[in-house]
Every structure is written in structure tokens, then in C-alpha cells.
Amino acid sequence: MPEFSAHVCVVTHHPFWKLPSGCGSLIRNRYQLLLGHFEQVSILYFSLNGDSCPLPGWTVPVGDGLPRDFGGQVDALFSQESIDIAYFNYDNLNEIAAALSCVTICENHDVMHLRAEAYESFGFSWSGGLEKEEEIRKLRTYDIVCSISLDEANYLHASGLNNVCYLPPNVNWNPQVMPRRPITSGLIGSVMEPNIDGWQHFFEHGDLGFELVLAGPISEYLQNRPDLAKRNMNSTQIMGTINQVRVFYQAIHVSLSPVRFGSGLKIKVLEALAHGRSVVGTHHSFIGFPEGISGVVRCDDDFRNWPSLIDEAVNEVNLSDISDYVNENFSNQRCINLLKARL
Prior knowledge:
This protein has two domains: about 5-170 and about 330-340, 3-Layer(aba) Sandwich (Rossmann fold), CATH 3.40.50; about 185-330, Rossmann fold (3-Layer(aba) Sandwich), CATH 3.40.50.2000. Helices cover about 35% and strands about 20% of the residues. The protein contains 13 helices and 13 strands.
């Protein structure tokens, strides 16, 4: 029997059912968590490119925008379908949330004004940024705001947002068998500015000395920029975009995170840990993680020190310690208990 006799509707524009990693895996795992504990879970999918959601629920095409009274239409639908909780994956539909009679929850992946400030400090611009006051006002629309980053949850609460709580991503412990030696490190990621900046900075100042595996869009970007990766391309495997992230983790001993700026919790770091891989990264890569993260990763902002840290991460970080950290902080039971405490 479900723990909660309630009907939840996940409201999203993100096609999480077909995206293998990053926010796709975060939202997919959250959907599975809700399915396991609530009586009924539906999807209200706002389609940006004409595709449809294959999961139970409704698809709304938004190519031409939404009518002004659409929040009222959604409220009528939710009342008709006896939906008790609307679970928004992003804070981009707060006007709809404001019109709903049911409980509204917003999952906050990043504090956008902090992201904008971080981008600007490294010479980039972020068009999606909001002023702090405006972002806090929008987040007050929801009954509950769940921040996936412990640091950002504390920041929002200190900024006067009393409806915020910490709800980390839930992951399943899924360790992969280590490949044969020699030691192989790897990176999987998008072509967002922090990833590109991190690798540019790494290849300017560091030298791995280990075989390298690259996956995701960042791998195709670097393949087309041999000037950035000339030190290591002769010993680099390019996987490109992959459908199953476990294929990547089966090929490496340790994951790398050279990201120097941004906001939110680094999902790729958690994803690596959940697959039984330690991570070597910058200090920024581990912001927002619960206490104990330093015991299962290795951290240094000086890329010249990374070869020794990679060796240390492979030979000194125990798989049992990674398992304990992941299960203690990011298990399904841990996350449902935190959510239950707020409902």
C-alpha cells in the first residue's frame, strides 16, 4: 500500500524520461520516488518542441505560448482529477502555481541570481538571471520550496524564505565493476559555460598523465577543439552522447570535475558516487554536499596536483565509504522522510 493516499502531478517542461544524465536522471529518480510512496502520480508536460510525454498524464504544446487564464484552466483540471499536490520541477511556472487550489511544491535546482553573479565573476553572462528580490518573491508563490543544495537551502532561508527546505536528490546505489588498469579518468558533461571554462583552464595548467574518457556533448566539443586537449587527445577515448551512463562509469576508475563556478549541487558528482566512483574536482564542485563529502572525493583547485590526487582517489578511497555516504545522505528512504516532514 502507498504511504500517502494522495494524487501528485509532476509539472515540468523537461523530457526527463529520455535524457540519460544530469537533470534528466534527477527528475526521473524523483518521479520514481513519488511513484513508490503516493497513491497516484501523473505528469503535466509542457512541450516546447511538439513531443508528447509517454507517461500517464497530459501534454500541453507551448510553441505559441499559453493563454493568460491558463492557470485557472489547470486548476479546474486538477480539481476534476482530484490532484492533491502539484510538484513543479522548476520555478518557471509560478503564475500557474499561484492559481492552484492544491498544495504546490517547487524543486529548486539552482538559485538563479547566484548563478548570474557567479557567471559574471568569471566574465560570462547568464540571461536567465533574476534580481534577488524578484526571485525570492516568485519562490514565495509555492507552499513548499525544496532545494537540492544544502548550502542554497540555508542561503534562501537566511534570505527570508520561510517555505524552503532541504531535499537532496535521491539516487540508487549502483556500483559498476572497475575496468582493468592502467588508471583511467573521465568526464561526462554538457557544453554549458562552466564545463567549457573548466576544461580550458585545466588544459592550460594541468597535465593528467592518465588515460582519459570523455562522454556527453562536452566530449564532442573537445574533439572538435584539439587545441584545447592537445596534451591528452592521443590517449583519449571519445564516447560522445550515450544512452546509458553506466557505460561511461564502467570505463573509468575516477570521475573529474574541473568546474570553477556556477550554482546548485553538481549532479554529475553525485551520479559518479552513486556508480561507485570517487571524484577529483575543484572546491566549487563539492559545494552544497552534506558533511562527509571530503572522505570520498579529492579536492584541489591547482590542476597540477591532480595526477597524484587521481592516484589517491583510486587507491585510497574505499568503495564501502562511498556506499555509506551515498546511502546515508541520498537514499530513497532518506529523501521521502525529509519530504514527509514538510507535508
